[in-house]
Amino acid sequence: MMRVNIRYFAVLRERRGLSEEQIETSAATIGECVNQLVVEHRLGLPVSLIRVAIGTDFADDSTPLQEGMQLLLIPPVAGG
Amino acid sequence: MSFTLSFEPLALEPQEHSQAGGFVSFEGKVRNHAQGRSVIHLEYEAYPEMATAQGNELVHEAMERFGLLDARVTHRLGTLNIGDTAVVVQAAAAHRREAFEACEWIMDQIKWRVPIWKRETYADGVSEWVHAGSAPAEPHSDQIRFERQMRLPQVGDVGQTKLQEARVLLVGVGGLAAGSLPPLVGAGIGTIGLVDADLVELSNLHRQTLFASSDTGRQKVERAAAFAKRLRPAVQVETHFEALSETNATRLIESFDWVLDGTDSLETKFLLNDVCRKLGKPLVTASVHQFEGQIMTLRPDGPCLQCLFPEVPPDHCVGTCATSGVLGVVPDVLGALQANEVIKGILGLPTLDRQLALFDLLTLDVTRLERTFNPKCPICSGSEHSSSLEWDLQQLPAFDFDLIDIREIDEQPNLQRPHLRIPMTSCYERSFVRPTVFVCASGRRSFRLAADLRAAGNRHVFSLLDGLNNPALR
Predict the structure, then answer these.
(1) For chain A, what is the radius of gyration of the CA atoms?
(2) B325 CB neighbour count, 10 Å cutoff
(3) What is the pLDDT of residues B418-469, one digit of tens each?
(4) Residue of A nearest to B266 (CA)
(5) A&B contacts, CB < 8 Å
(6) What is the ipTM of this complex?
(7) What's the domain range around A56?
């Protein structure tokens, strides 16, 4: 198990009901980690539609998860 | 249906229309003051042939636009005293709304389009000619209007001319456009295009502050055009009362230099991304959700929207303003940032070409993320040079042209054919009248320069694909 920080944006923030949280997970990759969150909190978007950033760069779903990582979960936004 | 000029005092004539449920008659009067000065009397003068032709054209346009049964305009010429009637506009329609709207529209149009001048004689004995409708005309007033921004070294005379020659298309005239239109028009953008198929609704007004309560039920494009004209009468506005679709996208976009995405539909945003890329147009896209906004500038040679989100998601799964709510100030801020991107882009200043900026207006956090090409992107296949733009040349052109090496002066090796060396940054400050081909080491800088100069209105600039590696230069 490792601890990672999650920041939610736009509709993910709205559906999760918070902006930021620390979670404990056994996921091996960031893709797996995001999938767990989508299922657990019914985020309403498939993992393929959510982009994950670490620091200032977007990361691939297959990136191995590491202790203390901060993941930014960014969905497409439609409103205008 | 008629537009007439008259030297005789105007009298209201009774009109009979058995089908008309609404008949509106408007009289424009001579009042005793103008811009703080006391007016004694005034004199109208026209170039009659042209005024009558223009007048008839706009009356005809009003008939079609508002579906009128009849429209008549009579404008006075000669000397008029305080209280005299200067113009009578009458409109008959099946319902009152169209008749009211037509009268107002016709009056606005007369002031903008019909060559009638008036000479005001003031209490101090001085008299002055002024165009009947607008403030004293350009270009003298433009010097004053734009003085504060022209003081900026990044703008100046050259930059201001670029802004005034630019053509900018706003797709979607809602909350984002309410933020972007005023600063674009204010900055002096020469031509603004507006595309939207919606009418103003009461629930729009908390954020779409271009519109007034009395605008509800009217075309957004038409009311936004009226707003723009009030702000700067010299701005050219082209309105398209239709929704952007695959069928009309190319036609609507191709004559513009920059496109702003102010739509609230992911499908349209992805369509714009695709079409703008094919046409070589820079696109500034933004969207809002509750207290948050996203913005990025998509250049024809940079990573595109589908590099970021390879799949086109259905709207319902990401929430909309209608379902999730939005604070009115959020689209206003993001729209203003879109205008900022376009203005900077026209001036050759840095824009968010390879970044996604996320704004949280609840906490005022700004997050900027680097966007890169995505090899899985269906639009650009992750390639820097997938475009088949006619100005991104595979080989040197057959017509007469100047060849300019835009690398820094110390970059080697030298070209083996006649050319000039002007570093890229200096090229932004020049205008190129003759056909000009830019070349750099790889074709990336030259592509960017040609794209920027084309976006700023220069049609004669080209980039050589692959730069020094192009076979034509070996």
Answers:
(1) 12
(2) 13
(3) 899 999 989 988 888 888 999 998 888 898 899 888 888 787 899 998 888 8
(4) A78
(5) 97
(6) 0.89
(7) 2-74
